[in-house]
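Data card: per-record layout.
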Amino acid sequence: MAIKKKTKVSATFSMSSLTDIIFLLLIFFMLTSSMVVPNALNLKLPGKSKSSTELKAPPTNISIKRNGTYWIRGEKVSINRIEKAIRELGKKGRPVSMTLSPDPKVPNQYVVAIMDIAFRYGVETILTDPK
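The structure for this 131-residue chain is written out next.
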């Protein structure tokens, strides 16, 4: 008497568990991407303007040399001194504007440090080409 075993392999594949996993991953990535806030400055890029702006006072010139030293009105100063000078200009009750002239080889961190100070004190920053 021969006993036959049932060894048929089913050719079907159940996709229900795979779709559940993909759905959970989708929810996870959607939630985590909405919680991530980029750490960046809110910069106003130059563009066309129909109205002209007249400065009531000459802008304060800040230049940054290649080695990372800061110069304000031709005088070598530290980053803390620049912050104090910008704060004092803002206390006079008039809008403060400044020109920022970095050397072409200056690392971006030195320029961003000045732009961050300008942003905190509400200064209209004007970037210019170095001489």
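Known properties of this structure: DSSP finds three helices and five strands in the chain. The chain has a mean pLDDT of 78.

See the next section for split statistics.
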